Automatic annotation (TrEMBL):
PANTHER family: METHYLTRANSFERASE, METHYLTRANSFERASE DOMAIN-CONTAINING PROTEIN. This is Methyltransferase type 11 domain-containing protein. InterPro entries: Methyltransf_11, Methyltransf_Superfamily, SAM-dependent_MTases_sf. It comes from Emiliania huxleyi (strain CCMP1516). It comes from the Eukaryota. Residues 146-257 form the Methyltransferase type domain. It holds the Pfam family Methyltransf_11. The lineage of its organism: Eukaryota, Haptista, Haptophyta, Prymnesiophyceae, Isochrysidales.
């Protein structure tokens, strides 16, 4: 172990002059991006850094009232957990098979599925609802809602609860493991439901469908609203374009697409850490903020597949909402992008200022003394704090991989 730490410490030495230029914007936590990248790409990263960050996150989450280990044991015990033969009939795109969130099998494993909702905090979701409503998001009475990339249904259940007038709510995901957990959660008895870490109400309107969001198999022009909640950052931009096209295909004319997404580089240290477990995050962040394109690359891609009336607004200091519509038959899409993000900008309150100031000071001390253990503990705390407030991917180093 000592040898590992010595090697890691050498990786964490101050960066050469060129990489100093990449030192993180926002200052404070003064580890250069190149320095961090070197550590993250080291073969020792998985062996030492990830388990340590995971431990800290679980402990911090538990101190903040998330009963992580209890909830994990509890959901595991709700098995038996097995996949059905039908699940293998769905074609899985290559990008989806890559390691993700520190799981070797990405989302295609039980650990990821059990921990997904435990790791996901709901604090920012209400802000999405408000921003979507401000942009004219509407679901007609009896309407059909589809939640693409629903995970184990956390966003689907929320969608159903927020729209009692809807007739049906279908969650779609590529991971049969997540869907199995989601279906199991929905069939729990009342007494058991209260044990879960997320809101859980029985709702006969909800169904969960195993499919690629880019090829749902749903009928053309059959859906009133498609939701994409915190999905696109997990995809390469080409796949995102395919999903937009599928959303357009299944929406009836006049139907709406709702998207909730995050400003990914607002905390560079956190971004670097998450980036190390999410292969498409860099490409997505570049695409999302594409220069000279109002609303970024996504708005252009939405317009390209035929959407119009694209509107964006801030939900929190870190999260944004987008609403766009499939034009009515015979109408050309209104291509003007109404980007209200600057006008609706919110303060970034995701980290409690006093805590982050304290963390920065402690990080500076740990760096000065070369205390690697401390640096990793502080990184874990930072991630847990961010997660506690609800980032797009709060706990990138899930604990099953210790
Ligand atoms: C960060 S989770 C978001 C889950 C949920 N919508 C929420 O708001 O918490 C992203 C989900 O997108 C799913 N996903 C990624 N690519 C997909 C695809 N091509 N088709 C269907 N689901 C996909 C993943 O399996 C994962 O469950």
């Amino acid at each position: 172990m000592l040898a590992l730490l010595v090697t890691l410490q050498s990786l964490l030495r101050p960066p050469p002059p060129r990489s100093r230029g990449l030192a993180m914007r926002g200052g404070g936590i003064d580890i250069g991006r190149a320095l961090l990248d070197a550590a993250l790409s080291s073969p020792l990263y998985k062996a030492v850094l990830v388990p340590q960050a995971q431990r800290t996150m679980v402990e911090t989450a538990e101190r903040n009232g998330v009963p992580w280990r209890d909830a994990l044991d509890w959901i595991k015990a709700r098995g038996p957990w097995r996949l059905s033969e039908d699940d293998s009939a769905v074609a899985i795109p290559e990008y989806y098979r890559r390691p993700f969130h520190a799981y070797e099998q990405g989302n295609l494993c039980w650990d990821a599925a059990w921990e997904g909702e435990i790791a996901s905090r709901a604090a920012f979701r209400g802000a999405f609802d408000e921003a979507l409503a401000s942009l004219g998001a509407e679901c007609p009475a009896g309407g059909s809602l589809v939640d693409l990339g629903c995970g184990s249904g956390i966003s689907t259940r929320r969608l159903a609860a927020a729209h009692p007038q809807a007739g049906s709510v279908v969650g779609v995901d590529l991971s049969p493991h997540f869907l199995a957990v989601g279906r199991r959660l929905l069939e729990l008895e009342e007494e058991e439901r209260r044990r879960w870490v997320q809101p859980l109400e029985p709702d006969g309107r909800i169904s969960l469908l195993h499919a690629d969001a880019a090829a749902t198999g749903l009928a053309a022009c059959s859906v009133d609203v498609v939701q994409l909640s915190l999905v696109m950052h997990e995809l390469p931009p080409a796949a995102a374009g395919d999903i937009f096209a599928e959303a357009h295909r299944i929406l009836r004319p006049g139907g709406q697409l709702w998207e909730g997404f995050s400003k990914l580089r607002s905390n560079p240290l956190l971004f670097s850490l998450i980036r190390s477990t999410e292969p498409y995050l860099d490409a997505y962040a570049d695409w999302q903020t594409a220069e000279g394109v109002p609303g970024g690359g996504p708005a252009a891609a939405l317009a390209e597949v035929g959407f119009g009336r694209i509107r964006l607004a801030a939900a929190t200091g870190r999260h944004f909402a987008l609403v766009c519509s499939r034009p009515l038959n015979g109408c050309e899409p209104d291509r003007a992008v109404d980007d209200r993000r600057a006008a609706t900008a919110k303060p970034d309150t995701h980290l409690k200022t006093r805590k982050i100031a304290q963390l920065k000071a402690e990080m500076a001390e740990a760096e000065a003394s070369g205390d690697l253990d401390r640096i990793m503990t502080l990184m874990g705390t930072l991630l847990a704090l961010e997660g506690g407030a609800g980032t797009c991917v709060p706990y990138p180093f899930y604990p099953s991989h210790q």
